[in-house]
Amino acid sequence: MIRELFNSKLIVSLALLVVPSISLAQDLNGANTGWILTSTALVLFMTLPGLSLFYGGLVRTKNVLSVLMQCFAIAVCISILWLVVGYSIAFGPSDSAYWGGLSRMFFSGIDINSMSGDIPETVFAAFQMTFAIITPALIVGAFVERIKFSSMLIFSILWTLLVYFPVANWVWGGGWLGSMGLIDFAGGTVVHVTAGVGALVTALVIGQRKEFGQSSTLPHNLTMSFTGAAMLWVGWFGFNAGSALAADGAAGMALFVTHISAATGALTWMVIEWIKFGKPSGLGAITGMVAGLATITPASGSVGPAGGLLVGLAGGIVCYYATTYLKQNLKIDDSLDVFPVHGVGGMVGTFLAGILVSNNLGVFSGNGLAEGMTIGSQVGVQVTGILATGIYTAIVTFILLKIVAALTSGIRITDEQEQVGCDITDHDEKGYSM
Which residues fall within 8 angstroms of residue 51, CB to CB, at 6 or more apart? Predict the structure, then answer.
């Protein structure tokens, strides 16, 4: 008996020596940590392979590989940029209301025992990194089939450095918008407004595809796009519910309203097409789904199921008509509808979050306004957040495009290269060899 007791104590002692975090990370919550680890994988799954396949199916055969490569390369480069300086700028300790400083470059001062709340800081940082990855990847949809790979990569790196990282600090890292009380639970402004506005400016600067508005620009593989869209839907549960940073009721409600909004957005888009054209399209269904997801993102921590239904309905209607107006009236070739779906959806959701958060609208089960806030003042904060992130993004994006054009002797490929396709001109490969 004594020998067995001695052996058990020896084993425990050795374990503590080998894994010191067992004894040191006493405040760690295993359930919360496990959920954020899972959410991190889900959000990365949204970009690789979800967004890649969604976008890849929407372009023509001669450009499918280039789109997959663009999303993949962005994930690679932004991951390294996040380690070097991104996490520090977005979430580093700083007295500034506009950026987090450089004290956390290369994760300086962060080790296995560092905590962010009741989860390891490395887990929190990895989760936030996946948001930084998908945001510039969303912009890819605005300039597919006509941008140089080198220009795309340089632009994406600089844009993430100068737009995404600072805005993430403003809203989530203790910056001025977060201090004002802006409600952006999972990225309505940080992700969707910045990506949407960035996409719009990029589409305007680069210009239309040569066959814009013709049948030759139709998607080459909607089966691929449906597969990617389904992956986005599932991955979005990590995107929104993971933003609760805990395995609790808030995460559960965020997951549920996210699903309701996605379903409502898809159904709304289908019904509109059914009424206008006599039949719904598959492309419309998946686009409406993404619109519902983008719109609920900022409000997913503030509304209940009925609120999710309303947000999805608003997203489906507004994003549908924004898409139609942008292409048919303004003739802007935002190729895969990044601005009207993500940008407009993010704005609508951010605005509605300021209205539906109030407990006075009990049917929406809101969490309630912060002390001293009214619906009017909260809506004012929401509009300020939308305008600030939108205007800042537009200005910086335009400047960066001009800089990148000078560095790479023009952003756009030649007419001959556009006719051949980016798969061959950029990578000397084909997406299909059949």
Answer: 71, 134, 137, 138, 228, 232
- Give pLDDT tens digits for 365-415: 555 777 778 888 999 999 999 999 999 999 999 999 999 999 999 999 999
Give the integer Cα–Cα distance in Å for 409 and 412: 9
- Give the pLDDT of residue 370: 74
Give me the amino acid identity at 27: D
User: How wide is the angle at C-alpha 174 spanned by C-alphas 255 and 154, nearest 5°?
Assistant: 80
For the cut 60, the answer to whether the pLDDT of residue 208 exceeds it is: yes
Q: Are 140 and 55 in contact (CB under 8 A)?
A: yes
Domain map of the chain by residue range? 31-427
**DSSP structure string for 107-169:** GTT--TT-EETTEEHHHHHHHHHHHHHHHHHHHHHHHTTSB-HHHHHHHHHHHIIIIIHHHHH
d(CA 360, CA 108): 46
Is there a contact between 203 and 42 (Cβ–Cβ < 8 Å)? no
pTM of the model: 0.92
R_g of the chain, CA atoms, integer Å: 23
Grouping H, G, I as helix, E, B as strand and the rest as coil, residue 357 is coil
Distance CA 352, CA 167 (A): 20
**Residues 155, 288: Cα–Cα separation, whole Å:** 29
CATH code of 31-427, in short, is 1.10.3430.10
DSSP-derived letter for residue 181 is T
Peptide bond into 49 cis (omega under 30): yes
Instruction: Note whether 50 and 232 are within 8 A (CB).
Output: yes
Residue with tokens 């300021």: 354
